[in-house]
Structures are given as structure tokens and as C-alpha cells.
Amino acid sequence: MTEQKRHRILMVSDFFYPNFGGVENHIYYLSQCYCNDSCLWESIWCAIYDWGFESLLHSVEAVSDAKYIAYFFGTLPILRTILIRENISLVHGHQAFSTLCHEALMHARTMGYKVVFTDHSLYGFADVGSIHMNKVLQFTLADVNEAICVSHTSKENTVLRSGLSPEKVFVIPNAVDTAMFKPASERLSRNEIVIVVISRLVYRKGADLLVEVIPEVCRLYPNVRFIIGGDGPKRVRLEEMREKHNIQDRVDMLGAVPHAQVQSVLISGHIFLNSSLTEAFCIAILEAASCGLLTVSTRVGGVPEVLPDDMIVLAEPVPRDMINAVGKAMRMLPMIDPQMMHLRMKSLYSWFDVAKRTELVYDHALRCTDENLLQRLPRYLSCGAWAGKLFCLVMIINFLLWHLLNVLKPPEDIEEVPDFVYPHHQHEEPPNLEAKTREDAGSKPAVAIFPVRRSYCFRRHLLHQSAFAVETFVELMK
């Protein structure tokens, strides 16, 4: 029986480790899961940082030191090299805020590759920034093969912002590593109720709402104590609130909490409080529920889709409703069993399930018919009277630059990386994400160690872009 072809997926985003967040976690866990029992998928990561790259893998290849600009046409030469050298089957871009994602999808479509886009956030329609971002998203999604959103609310938002056909958008939620987020071995005493907040202290995460809610909850419930983990520009307001109401002994400010220590903070509490003003999904809620905490959250975005009603108390993003929700959650605490909640989360959310569903989207994208530039241009032209013409011009220039690169350095001159079959692919059962976890979590996520082949890092430099562009083409001509 002939061996089935192994597909290689290029994951592209500005958001990646060592930074921590929902997008970073999603890319990392999804990539790890693709060394599954079929061994037909393999992930290669592409990230961009201002200050360098810190690897979580066994093999890392840093692409140049400061010679490649990550702006628009400047990424075409190096991305072309990566796509050919790694024999990429499909390019998967993450997050609408990632400029590298938009550039990579544009270049990949120019070169005839199939592309998939995942949107992880909600965005508005009225302000200047939203209008600009939505037009860029419309340009990128005009020619993607398939798109993924993390919630039905996120899908509706993306379709309205980009004009993308709803039939091309799939909904695949995030997941949680339940092997890392486990409840405490012993149930906490309810003599003192501890409410945990772990979030970036910014406006979008509802830090101003916390300033109104916390003093009133402390006044109504003398046995309540707050633990706040996170940092941001709104931290000063929270510290001023503590001093104004003289509740320093009931509100602990931990500052920034490393991701590896989040679980130890969560298991010290009974209730997790999320005050976000906008959320497409909110992985923090999954992590808290996996640790056995009852969640109180604002009813915004895709949050109502995340947990069953008996595991979360929803409230409107106004102080009075949030305070009432906290009171309701405290009355529900005797009925909460952290161990049972953890087992339910294991059955509800799995990264392997997310990977399998994403693999179906990849299969669907790879079956799409190939199209030349003339067949694709009308989709860009439909993006607007003036914007459509500008988008067409951009794609034509990109197409010509690609052909120029093919002349200067033909694809056959780029050596492809040979396949490497890891021993456990041949002789062992595929590793289990729950059983085979990192023993030393450190500052890294506790997940199974699967072989991911290579990571690439761009370094963004704002100055001397033209000089770097010249150096890029000079190196290609060597």
C-alpha cells in the first residue's frame, strides 16, 4: 500500500511564544496535535518579534538577524523560500491584528497555495481604527479558501466586517489543557470566599468595571476576599480604589502572573470573575472551570457559548448586575464539585478534537480548484469602487515581483528539507496529550512533547527599510 502524502502546514502570526495569550496558546497546542496517529500533518511556525526569538522547541532556525523587513512586499522573498524549502501544502494565518498574517496569506495566494484564516477576536465598525482594519480584512479574506472563527458570535462579526460568504466560515472553539489546569486535591473552606481575577488590566478587559464592583462586594459580603493577577495601565486605578475604600487587606494585587503559575493562583479561589467588555471566546474561563472554579462573567461576545448554565453566572456589563451575579454565585457554591467540573471540562474541550475539526477544514481547502490571477482579480475588484482597484494593483505588483524572484532564483535552486520520520511514528503508539506532559512546566506550557520540525523568526525593524530590502534581493541573487 502506497504511503499517503504528508501535508505541511505553515502557521503564521505575529502572536507567538514567549508572549502568552489566547492566540499563542491556540497555535502552539494545535501544532503539537498534528503529530497524530495518521502522521499526515506537520506544522511549521512563523513568528515575528521586535527583540528576537526564544525557542520552545528542540530545533529552531532563526531567519537572519536584521536583514528581512516584515512589511508588505518585503516578506515575499523569505516567505517564498520557506514555502518552497519546507514543501508547504497550506498556509494558516491567525488573528486579524497580525500584519504578518495578512502579508503571508497575500503572498501564498499569489504563489498558488491554499490558505486558511482564523479570527480570534471581535472588532467594531464605527471608529477610525475599525474602519481601517475591516478594509484590510476585506482585502485578505477576498481570496482565502476557508476561514475559521472561535465562536458563532465571532463568525457573525467576521462575516459582517469582511463581506465573506458565511458558507466559507467554520466555527471551531478553543480548548484547554486539562492536564495542566487541575483543581486542588482538597476542597477549600467556604468560611472565606476568595474571588480570583486574572486578566490584563486594560479598558477592554473591564478593569474600570472592577473598580466599581469590588468595593461594593466587599461592603455587602464581609467574608469575601479578592485576588487580582495581571498588569496594565488600569492597575493604578485599582490600587487607588483599594486605598480609597481601605480594603488593602481584602484585595491582593499580584501583578503579572506567568502562565505556568496561573493554575496555582486559580486553585486558591472559589469564584473566577471575568469583567471583559468584549470577548470572542475567553480561554481564561475554560482554565478557571477546569480548576473547579464557578465563573461570574459579563454577557458579551461569545462568552455565553463557552460553558453550560450551571457552571457560569452571566451578567450585563454594569456594576449593579455584576454585584448581583456575584451574590448568586456565592449561593451556588455548595452545589459545586471542583473534581466533577474538571471531568466535565475534559469531556467538553479537547485540543485533539479542535485539531481534527481543523483538519477537515484543511481537507476542504485543499480540494478547492486552482485559479490564476485573472480569475481571482474580480473578487478584489468587488471590495469597493476605489479600494477594489487599489487591491487589484497590489496583487498585480505582487504577482510581477514573484515572477521576478523566480527568474533571479528559480525554485529548483532552493534545496528542500528532507523528510525525517521520528522513531515513535514507526514503532510506538501515538503519545497521549493528557498522560505525557512536561514534568518541569517552568515558564512553558505543560503539554506533550511532539516533534514540530522548525520555527522561523522575523525581526521587525522600523528604520532603514529600503536598505534592508536591497540587502534581501542582493542575498537572493548570490
UniProtKB/TrEMBL annotation:
Q: What is its EC number?
A: 2.4.1.198
Q: Name one GO cellular component term.
A: glycosylphosphatidylinositol-N-acetylglucosaminyltransferase (GPI-GnT) complex
Which keywords fit this entry according to its UniProt record? Glycosyltransferase, GPI-anchor biosynthesis, Transferase
Transmembrane stretches, by residue range?
none
Which GO BP terms sit in this record?
A: GPI anchor biosynthetic process
Q: Which residues form the PIGA GPI anchor biosynthesis domain?
A: 65-127
- Top-rank taxon of the source lineage equals Eukaryota
Secretion signal, residue range per the UniProt entry: none
Q: One Pfam match, by short name?
A: PIGA
Q: Which InterPro entries match?
A: Glyco_trans_1 (IPR001296), PIG-A/GPI3 (IPR039507), PIGA_GPI_anchor_biosynthesis (IPR013234)
- Database matches in Gene3D superfamilies: Glycogen Phosphorylase B
Q: What class of enzyme is it?
A: transferase
List each copy of the Glycosyl transferase family domain by range: 185-315
| GO terms for MF | phosphatidylinositol N-acetylglucosaminyltransferase activity
Q: In which pathway does it act?
A: Glycolipid biosynthesis; glycosylphosphatidylinositol-anchor biosynthesis
Write the protein's name: phosphatidylinositol N-acetylglucosaminyltransferase
- Taxonomic lineage: Eukaryota, Viridiplantae, Streptophyta, Embryophyta, Tracheophyta
